[in-house]
Design goal:
alpha+beta; Glutamine Phosphoribosylpyrophosphate, subunit 1, domain 1; 7-stranded antiparallel sheet
Amino acid sequence: MFDYFQIIDFTGKPIPPRSYSFLNNPYYKNIAAAEYKKEFKNSYAVFLEREETEKNFYSNDGINIFVFGTVYTNNRFKQISGKSPEIVYAEKILSMYLNSGDSLAEHIKGSFVISIYDGKKNSIKLISDRLNVLPLYYFFGEGILIVSSSVRMILETGIAPREINPAAFTEQLIFDFTLGTKTYFKNIFRIDNGSIYDFDGNGKTERKYWSVENLYNKKLLPKKESLEMLGTQLRDNLKLYGSDTEKLLVALTGGFDGRANLAMLEKDKNDFVCYSYGMPGSRQVEIPREICSSLGLNFSPVLLDAEYEAVHDSDALEAVEHSNSCAPVLRANYPYAYKKLNSFSKTIMTGLFGSEVMRPLHNVGIMVNDYSEKLFLSDSPRDTLNEIFEDIKKRNYVDPKIIDEGRSETERELFRDYFDRYKDRGKVLRFFFFIIQEGVRKYFSQEIQIERVYVTTRFPFFDDDFVELMYRTPFAGMYNGFLGKSKFKRRKGQLLYAHIYRRFKPELGKIKLDRGYKPDDLLKPFPFNFLSIYRGVKKTAAYKKATGNDTFNSEKWTENLIRNVLNEFEDESGVFGNRLKNKFEGGEYLKDLLKYSHLISLYKYLNSFD
């Protein structure tokens, strides 16, 4: 199930007949989907499947279960049942729930939100996975609950007010994403990760069954044991995550993560296709091409060329819509790639999250920007936050009144959830908790929300069992320096990749990375490892300086789209006025294209309602 909508009236009134449908949205015009509708006395539900199957819905004696995403049993369940982790569908999940109640959450993993609607009691329970990056959203007011993967569908019921959330816009300007469960609308919220919600006529209860701080361990496993255990767990994940599909698309780049998946994949070479995307000649295309040529594998590059440019604007708007406006207009490559590739398979195996849990952060970018680094590493965070508030007002992206209205809630939430909660932790550890809970999850959630309508995204590195094991080992980035303070520690996480290649597919260790050195160089004794890596890094730096970004040409590709959005829509939201138009016409938007492209996405989305 890749899209889900349900409306429930807890006051006991029947839901009036109305055609709630994802397929009414023009952005679903070319999406291959089977739509199912379920009517109950006080509720109505609709969901989309890629094929004509109802394995993600099951009903028994008035209890109805909907499975949005993918669920597996985990290692805890293996310990009590003796059964290895396996994919489970609605009927099995309901049976587990009836046997164990809310303890079900302790025995499953994956990327999901499970909805259990009791038609007799007119109540609903929602269970999200621990690291949730495939979110559902909800509105709850005046006895009515609406839950959906589409914020637009919630708003178009006419029940949820379309009132903007000033704190959400304030946080977007600071962090490039919103914090906690906020959306850009005041009364619509994102289901939190690792949480169980209960809604009925008496209201809402919510509890967290997992927290990011659970990952931190003072005592770590020995290095050699860690390498073996991590490699084995990741191999098991690859097998599990590809168990429900004969054909598979395998993401491959010039880096470590996709290469590690490829090393451990146990499928016939005719049953999977490797792919990558980038401009013709890009290292993100040519290195995967070299790997596939060397190993005799099928390779299907998605070239971001003239054909891509011709459809860029429409694909960018699809990305905005399917991400619920969380993604910037820079993400057109996702719809473009998967519309081309999904005729081979509707399931992709990616290396997403690998580097984020394996290596310490060593540069400031999209998950950690200048503001977040400055704030979390400050000796006086409250003073620093006030400086940041004033700075984002000066940048003049939105009406300053919105920042004034949103700052108190933003400040309260930051101190409640991070600075006060972890006041006995060091600054770096506190920052890592923020990065994992907010930055990593919110950044990749943009991509996964977009991709869900075209393909099912599997990411074995962000598997609960693997992540929990990783943070018990010395290879987790949390324990290995911070933001470039130690280049030697920075390489420690890469040793796991090199070990995996040597253990499972040694040929992969001999092919250069986009960093300019070979994985096998990491395994050389000092100083030979240092010299090989140093030479490669220097050559790569010189190449980047000479060629710039050889994968994307975002400035060129987005210019026409931004112009059309600004010309087509007047700002009726009261958020931007003419500020974005003025920055575009003066060329100032190019100074911070990422932030600007996020705001253009929001501008388009907010002004697209009748």
